[in-house]
Structure formats: structure tokens, C-alpha cells
Specification:
Length: about 250
């Protein structure tokens, strides 16, 4: 698939050749791969749908650095803010997790050094995957939506479902007479719209405004005051602060 070859180009030649060889040997991997992990002095690991595939090649620290430099357009400093949060988002919506030694200043992580691991999470949209739950989300009588929380264990497709749900709500669903709504997305970790240089890499609908790299609390407030959304969506509700931000959104006025 095209998504895989978008990712391979970021690796040094030795690693990219090994990845291409693995895909050529087993075409099924291309359709099922979820992650490519490279770690210093350890083999390459491919996570597919129901197994892990180990490529016996010890990755060097120099190769990790070369990969990171390509990801950052040869300007790691320009991407320091994203790196300090532990991830980068590249064209196509693919997200790269980063680990290393945290540099702390005023009790806040300002950078990562001695990068030792990169995790390429392959982004794939599944258009219309939310169709099966539209009846539980859309309030057709009032041409609105019900307040909705999507819950599941990790890795079961919550974000994929949410992304497609936003697209449907934003574009409207002609088959059931639902008119599109202005949506505001707080994409704190860049996993919903997958913005790349300000452009969403995923289809989140024609009436959707996205603010990324910001806390849910600040992002929700900014969207309500500046963009007057009819629907607000966010991902990974996991703290008291996130819950409070959602609760307070009912009190905000544009």
C-alpha cells in the first residue's frame, strides 16, 4: 500500500531495503502492518494484525539519528516542541513515537536527547466504519447529536471510529436526512486529523475546524470563542482535567 512506502523513505538505506524485502516476501504484511519499531542495538519489529515479525538487524544509534533528521526535514531544533511531547506527525498522518532521555526545565520536559527508540504507527482511514453506530449518535428528530462517549480497550479502533464519525457529522448523512454540523476538533496528540504543516491528512469533513498540540481545556475554550462549533470532538479522555474541560464546555458562550 502507498502508506507503507511513504514511511519507508524516512529510514536509512539498509533498513528501508530490509523492510522492502520483508514486504515482498509476504504481501499480507502490507495490508495488516500497524507499527514499525526500531530500537538502538536491537532488531526491527513489525507489528501486524495478529503477530510480531522480527527482522534480525541490530539498529545503530546513528541510524536512529539519521531517521529522526529525515523526519524533521534535517532541522531537529525546529521540531523540538513536538519531540518534547514524545511524538511527531508526518505527511499521511503517520505518527512516530519517540523515546530517549528527557531534558527537564522548571518541572517540564523541554526536549528529548539520546533518542533510543522510534515507533512508526501506520495511519489508515476506514471510511464509513462509523455507519453502524450512527443510529446511536445522531438525534434525527432534532437534527442534532447525542452527547457520546466511545469506550473500548486499547488498540480496538476508538480513534478510527471517532475520526469517521466526525466526518459523517460534518458532511451530513443524506441517506437519513441529517444535515452537516460545524465541528470543532481538539486534536491534542495529532491522531484525529493528523495535521501536517497545517493541513489535515485525514478526512474529517467539510465543516470541521481543527486545533492541535494544545490541551483539551484550552482548545475547547478557544474553539467555542472563535469558531462557534455545534459539535466538539476530542480523543483520549484520561484525566480529571479532561473531564473538567468537557464539563465546563457546557457553560462557555462564544
Amino acid at each position: 500500500m502507498e502508506e507503507i512506502f511513504e514511511v519507508i523513505k524516512y529510514f536509512p538505506l539498509n533498513i528501508s531495503n530490509l523492510l522492502k524485502a520483508a514486504f515482498n516476501q509476504n504481501a499480507k504484511i502490507i495490508n495488516e502492518i500497524q507499527e514499525i519499531r526500531v530500537r538502538v542495538n536491537r532488531p526491527i519489529l513489525l507489528k501486524v494484525k495478529d503477530a510480531d515479525i522480527v527482522i534480525k538487524y541490530n539498529v545503530s544509534s546513528a541510524e536512529i539519528l539519521q531517521t529522526l533528521e529525515k523526519l524533521c526535514d534535517n532541522s531537529i531544533y525546529a521540531y523540538q516542541n513536538q519531540i518534547s511531547q514524545g511524538f511527531l506527525t508526518i505527511k499521511g498522518g503517520h505518527r512516530i513515537g519517540i523515546t530517549g532521555t528527557a531534558v527537564i526545565e522548571n518541572n517540564k520536559v523541554i526536549n528529548l536527547k539520546y533518542i533510543n527508540s522510534l515507533n512508526f504507527r501506520i495511519a489508515r482511514q476506514i471510511i464509513n466504519c462509523s455507519n453502524k453506530i450512527l443510529g446511536q449518535v445522531l438525534d434525527l428528530k432534532n437534527n442534532s447529536i447525542y452527547n457520546t462517549l466511545i469506550v473500548s480497550p486499547p488498540g480496538c479502533g476508538k480513534t478510527t471510529m471517532l475520526r469517521d464519525l466526525i466526518r459523517n457529522i460534518s458532511d451530513g448523512v443524506e441517506s437519513c436526512g441529517f444535515s452537516g454540523k460545524t465541528c470543532g476538533v481538539v486534536d491534542e496528540r495529532g491522531e484525529i486529523a493528523a495535521m501536517y504543516k497545517g493541513v489535515p491528512q485525514n478526512d474529517v469533513g467539510i465543516r470541521t475546524d481543527v486545533i492541535e498540540n494544545i490541551s483539551k481545556s484550552a482548545g475547547i475554550k478557544m474553539l467555542i470563542r472563535s469558531m462557534a462549533p455545534e459539535v466538539i470532538a476530542c480523543d483520549e479522555i484520561g484525566s480529571k482535567e479532561d473531564v473538567e474541560a468537557i464539563r465546563r464546555s457546557f457553560c462557555f458562550r462564544s
